[in-house]
Amino acid sequence: MSSQTKEIAATTARARDKWREKAWYQVLAPEYFGNKEIGSTPGETPDSVIGRTLEPTLYDITGNFDQIHVKLRFKITGVVGQQAKTVFYGHEWSSDYLRGLVRRGTSRIDWIGPILTKDDYMMRISVIVFTITRSKTSQEHSVRKAIENVIVGHAKKHTFDELVQKVILGDLAKEVQEEVKKITPIRECEIRKSKVLKAPEEVRARRARLRRGGPKAETEETPEASS
Q1: Going by C-beta distance under 8 Å and a sequence separation of 6 or more, which residues neighbour residue 150?
Q2: Distances from the Cα of 97 to the Cα of 59, 74, 102, 188, angstroms
């Protein structure tokens, strides 16, 4: 056996041994998703897995195949024993599924905006509406205003955990739909995407700086363009 071959074999063995030394942690969804197991991840120490994100589908949690197009994001925040705890970080509908909802002679109306929950989580919410017939510009403006009123209103009166459940399970979209259909006939109304922008401690720190008259905090993230 050549020296180069021996070196490669030794490197492979070391890598294998290092992999064996890693522990596997069971990753759980938050309590408001039933602490459902959403995967596992290896790590040399518990601290080494904190901050990692997992992206299961809603189907993985509910077992409902009709929800396989909804991708969720969870971030690991802590480890207890061999179980890694997570917090919801956002969700997104698949682009293929959304494209399948497009129809000729109809309109697609998007609303995207930052919201603040009752317990000071800042999120970005993206809502998509498909009409039955082609809508007028004035109707689209009224639809976006109605969406904003419903979304912002619910954010103000619900905690983060409560709002996430309403967003992911479709309850909030149904309430938006009830308001929007008063303006124009609609075929579909969904919350297609969400993302956590700032945790409460960041929001409260910025608020405290402003109260003290310190340097103005950075401008909030500009909502992404509709896609």
Answers
A1: 172, 175, 176, 179
A2: 14, 22, 10, 12
pLDDT band at residue 207 using 50, 70 and 90 as cut-offs: confident
What's 208's DSSP letter? H
CA angle, 157 then 29 then 100, to 5°: 80
| pLDDT one-digit tens code per residue, 153-193 | 999 999 999 999 999 999 999 999 999 999 999 999 999 99
> What burial class does residue 4 get, using C-beta atoms within 10 Å of its C-beta: 0-12 exposed, 13-18 middle, 19+ buried?
exposed
- Please give the DSSP secondary-structure letter assigned to residue 118: T
**pTM metric for this prediction:** 0.81
Q: How far apart are CA 171 and CA 30, in angstroms?
A: 19
Query: 51 CB contacts (<8 Å, ≥6 apart)?
Result: 75, 76
11 pLDDT higher than 60: no
- The per-residue pLDDT for range 118-152, each reduced to its tens digit, is 999 999 999 999 999 999 999 999 999 999 999 99
Is 103:159 a contact under the CB 8 Å cutoff? no
Among the listed residues 133, 167, 138, the one whose alpha carbon sits nearest the alpha carbon of residue 150:
167
Beta strands 83-93 and 23-28 are: parallel
With 0-12 / 13-18 / 19 or more C-beta atoms within 10 angstroms meaning exposed / middle / buried, residue 13 is: exposed
Residue 69: partners with Cβ closer than 8 Å, 6 or more residues away:
57, 93, 94, 96, 97
